[in-house]
Amino acid sequence: MIRTSAALAVLVLSACTPQATGPEAAVTAIYKPLVDSKGATGTNLADLPLTMDLALKIQELETRAEERVFDFEVAGNCQDCTGFSNLKVTTPTDPSLAPRDGHTFVEATFTLFGNEQKDMFWDLIQVDGAWQVDNIFTEGFDLRLIADDMLSNEITPEPEGGVMQCMAMLRLHADALSKATPPGDTAAYDAAFAGYRAMAEPAMTPDELAQFFASSVAVFDDTPAEQIASEANACLAGAPPAPPAH
User: Fold this and answer.
1) Which residues contact 92 (CB under 8 A, 6 or more apart)?
2) Residue 106: what pLDDT?
3) Residue 132: CB atoms within 10 Å
4) Which helix (H) or strand (E) holds 168?
5) Residue 103 sits in the same domain as residue 216
6) Which residues lie closer than 8 Å to 212 by C-beta, 6 or more apart?
């Protein structure tokens, strides 16, 4: 369930928090917890100075889902932000990101895991002298687009144990079935796995998703076969539809 109202956070931050003087300084301040902790501590999405429109979308989305939907470090677009360093906040050179219609864009580049270069783009609006975030995006991730898309579709609540645990249980059970004598039918479990993977993809890069999935499999690899089968079947019952094959 939601612990913090995103809309309330906007009002509190706007009214009580000293505002940075420019858009780049505002974005730099958002990254301060990540910079100071080298990725160990970040900032929840609900605690960012979001515009009222975006905050209400996030609030509605999480109310309908009855949980935090963006349960990762949005500023770094990472679940594990280990080794966060080399932050640079600048004005984008891309002409398509020039200021327009009251929107100002800021580019943040940084390093994760020692050598992985990443960049995020921030769309900001000045409201009553304070800079507020109207969107956060990068290649493969657009916060506002994802929120709008999920609000326009039926939300499938995350199963108990989480998407990654379901992916691990489904894969472990499917592997056991395929190695049985005679081999069992894994088609339904494979389709459910694909559905959960599609749920996880917006929140992580392919490398991060592979890393977390491998870690989850390692954690549950020694689980008794009967328990794996039981949890895999529970995940199968609540699985989102698999994405269409290309």
Assistant:
1) 105, 106, 107, 121
2) 98
3) 23
4) helix 163-179
5) no
6) 79, 80, 164, 200, 204
Structural domain total, the chain = 2
Whole-model pTM: value is: 0.58
Q: Are residues 125 and 229 in the same domain?
A: no
Question: Residue 31 sits in a domain of what CATH number?
Answer: 3.10.450.50
pLDDT for 19-73, tens place per residue? 447 999 999 999 999 999 998 888 888 889 999 999 998 888 888 777 777 878 8
Tell me the residue type at 25: A
Tokens of 243: 């994405």
Structure tokens at 15: 């009214």
Distance, CA of 29 to CA of 15 (rounded, Å): 16
* CA-to-CA dists, residue 54 to 98, 135, 144, 152, 196, angstroms: 21, 8, 7, 15, 26
More confident residue, 202 or 35: 35
CA distances from 107 to 68, 213, 219, 221 (A): 26, 30, 37, 41
Rounded to 5°, the CA angle 136-121-150 comes to: 25
